[in-house]
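Title: [Solved] histidine kinase 3D structure

Original question kept below for reference.
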Amino acid sequence: MGGKYCGASRKRGWRGLVAAAYVLVAVACSAVMHWHLRGESLDRAEERLVSMCEERARMLQEQFGVTVNHVHALAILISTFHYEKFPSAIDQETFAKYTGRTSFERLLLNGVAFAQRVFHHEREMFESQQGWIMNTMKRELAPPQIEYAPVIFSQDTVSYLAHIDMMSGEEDRENILRARTTGKAVLTNPFRLLGSNHLGVVLTFAVYRPDLPDDASVEQRVEATIGYLGGAFDVESLVENLLSKLAGNQDIVVNVYDVTNASEAMVLYGPPSLDDQVPLLHVSMLDFGDPFRKHEMRCRYREKPPMPWSAITNPLGTFVIWMLVGYIICAAWSRYDKVSEDCRKMEELKTQAEAADIAKSQFLATVSHEIRTPMNGVLGMLDMLLGTDLTMTQKDYAQTAQMCGRALITLINDVLDRAKIEAGKLELEAVPFDLRSLMDDVISLFSSKSREKCIELAVFVCDDVPKVVLGDPWRFRQILTNLVGNAVKFTERGHVFVRVCLAENSNVEANQVIHGTMNGKDGKVESTANGAFNTLSGFEAADRRNNWQYFKLLLSDKESLLDDLDSENFDQNDSDRVTLAISIEDTGVGIPLQAQDRVFTPFMQADSSTSRNYGGTGIGLSISKCLAELMGGQISFTSRPFVGSTFTFSATLKRSYKDASADSNRSLAEALPDAFKGMKAILVDGRPVRSAVTRYHLKRLGIIVQVVNNTSAGLKAFSGQNGATISREKPTMLFIESDFWRPETDVQLLNRLREQKNGQLSDAPKVVLLVTSEADKDKYGSIFDIVMCKPLRASTIASCIQQLLKVEMPERKENQNRPSFLRSLLVGKNILVVDDNKVNLRVAAAALKKYGAKVHCVESGKDAVSLLQPPHNFDACFMDVQMPEMDGFEATRKIREMEMKANEERKNKLALVEGSTFVECHLPVLAMTADVIQATYEECIKSGMNGYVSKPFDEEQLYQAVSRLVVGTTDSAV
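Solution (posted by the thread starter after getting help):
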C-alpha cells in the first residue's frame, strides 16, 4: 500500500510540473506574442507618425512657396505699372481692390503692403506728392536718416501700416536690408500678430527695377531696389487650417519651432512642452527659403500606442479608415485643382471682357467724335441758313434737315450713355433741384402732342414729397422724358398720368410698388355707376393700384414736409434719404404679353411694327432702367394689351435744406408768385382723380379750392347756398372741366349768376374753362372769360390768372435762358475762336456774333498762343482740343504759363507802388470738342481750361458756359 501511495504522489507531482510548465510555456508564448505584436504595433505607429508629419511639413512648404510666388508676381506688377509712371497706373484704391480680390491666392498672409524706397534728399518732394508725412512705428514723425521705406499701398486688412516708415523699426530694417541683398523672401523673429494675437512672422520681399539682370551682384540689387513688399505670416492659423483638412489630428500633436538659435528654440505652434512619457517623436525640417532662419516641425502621439491585443482587432478598421482618409484627401485636392483651373479661366475671360469693353468704349468715342465734327457743321450751317430770307419750301426743307440732325445727335448721346453705363463710367451729380418744377418742365415738353391727340396729360406730386431734393436732375429728367414720351407716343385716347409719392407711404409695401406682377391679368380698376372708370380720364387703366380708392389715400391737406423742416436744424444723414415712387400711367395700346420680357433690352421693340408705326430705337427704356438702378431704385411695369401700361420706377434721393435756386447757373427751378395766396375758387369736375390734380396745381399758388360735381352746384356755392360761401373781399374764380359743361343748360345758369352780380362787377365770378384741345379755345372763347388748355402747370395758371384778374405782381428777373439775356452777356465782348476745321470755325463764329460778340478766328494753337501774349484785349477763348502741330491742351498750358509769368511781373511792379491793387490776369478758356467722354473732360481741367462745350453746341450750352465765365469780367488788357 505504501508503494501505491508513493507512485500516486509522484504522478500528481509530474502533473503539477507539466501543468506548471504548460502554464509557463503558455505564459511565455503569450508574452512572446504580446511583445511581438506590441513591437509590430510600435513600428507601424512610428511609420504612420513619420508619414503624417512629413505630409504636413510638405503641405506647409508648398503653401508657403505658392504665397511667395504670388508676392513675387505682385512685385513685378508694381515695378511694371508703378515705377517711373507719371501718373502711376496703380493707386491705393486699385492696390487695395486687387489685393483684396486675390487674397485667396496668398492664404498664408493676413495682408500685403508696399513700401517705397525713398532717399533723404527725396523726402520733401515725396511727402509733397503724397500729401502726408512719414511716421515711425510709434506714430511719431520719422527722424532724418539716409533712406526710408514709407508704406504707400496697403491691403485693407493692414491699412494701419499706411504712412509708416518700415525702416524705423530695428528688426524690420534688418529684414529689409537682408531682403534686398539676397533677392529672396526673408522672415523676422516670431512675434504676436495684431488682431489675432497669434504667433507669426513678417515676410519681406524686395521689389527691383525691371531692368535688373538675373545674375546681378549684391551691389546691383541694392542699387536697383525701388521698394519692398511685406506681409504677416500667421503660422498658428495656417497649421490649424491644414490640420482641419486632414483626418487623424486627434492622434498626434504637432509643434512648429523656430530653431535659428538652437539653444533657445521658439514655439510657433502647439503646446510649449512635450510629454516625455510618449516614446515616439519625429522631426521634419522646414525650408521657407530664408537662408538665415531655420524651422522644424515636431510630431508625436497624443497618447501612448495601444496594447498588442488592440492591434489584433483594429488593423482592418484602421486600414479602411486610412483608405477613406486617402480618398478624401485625394478628392479634396482634385476639387482644389479643378476650382483653381476654373478661377484661372475666369480671370482670362474677365481680362478679355475688360479689354473688349475698353476697345468698345474707345471705338464709340472715336465714332462719336468723327460724327459730331461734321454734324456740328451741318447743324450750324442749317441754323445760319434759317436766319436768311428763305421761301416757305426752302425753310421747310432746312427745318426738316435740322430736325433729323438733332435726332441723330440724340441717338449718339443715347448710345454713348449706354456705353458709359456698361463701362461703369457714368457718374451722377448731387445738386439741389425743385422736383415739382422739374415735373412741370417735363410735362410741358409734350403739351403740344397731347393737345393734338386730345388726351389728358397731368402730373401730381404728393404733399409729403420734399419740395427740394438733392440728386441729379438731368438724369432724373432723362428717365421721365423717356417714359412720358413713350406714354404719349403710344396713347391715342384717354390719358397719361404721372404721379410722384414717397414709397414708404404707399398702402402696399415698397417692393410691391416697384415690382408689378399683374401683367395681362387681374388688373381691372373699379368703374363708376355710369360705366366710366375712376381714373384721370375715365378710361380703364392697366394697374388697379392707381384707381381712386388707392389714390385718395395719398392725398393730404398738410403743408409740404419741407415747410416743417425749415424751422428746425437737421443734420444730413441717412435719415434724410427719401425713396420716391414715380408711376407713369397711360391708356395706350399696351405691350403684347409675348414681348414684355424684352422691354428693357437695348435696341429691341415690342414687335416689328412698332418702329414702323411709332418710330424710335428701343434704347430709351434700357437707359432708364440703368439710370434708375444707379439712383438706388428699380423700374418695372404693368401692361395689358389694348388697355394701357403703367411704368413705375423708384429713386433714392436726399432732402435738401437750401433753396434750389441758390445755384442759378444750374437750377431747374422756376419760382412761383405768391400774389394769389388766400384766393378762393370753385372747381366743377365729377372725376375725383382729375379734380385732385387740378386742386394740386392751384394749391401750389396758394389758392383754396372747393370741388363740386356739376355747374349748378358751383354756381350755388358763389350764391352762398348749401353753406358754401366765398369771401367777397377777394376775387373769386370758377374753373369748369369741358366734359362737365352742358351748354344747353349751364349757359343760362352762368348768365343768371352774372346778372345777379352785375351791380358789383368786382364780385362777378371769373369763369375759366379747362380743355384738352386747342380747337376748343375758339369754340368756347366767347362764353368764358378765358379758356385754359391742358396740361396744367402752376406757372401757366399763374400767368392766366394774373391776366384775368389784373393782379399786380413784382417784376420777375429776366429769364437767363432767353437769347436776350445771352446777348447782354456777349455784346461787345472780344472772343477768340480756335479751330482747325474751317466749317466749324465759321459755325462757332456765327453763333457768337449772333449775340453781339466781337469774334476773331485762328486755325492753330500756335496762332492762339501768339495772339494771347500779354497784354491782350480778349475776354474769352473757345479752344478746339484736337488740332495738328499744337493741340488745345498744350496751347492752354502755354497760355497759363504766360499768364503766370505776367502776373508775377505785375505783382512785383505794383508792390513798389503804395496803395495799388493787384488784379490777377486770367483768361477764361473753354474747350470745344466732339469728344464727350469723362476722360476728355478731366484732361481739359487738368490742362488749365475752365469749362467744356461739346459739339454741336446749342444756345443753352453757350449760355451755361458764358454765364459762368464771362459775366462780370472786364477787359483783360494786361
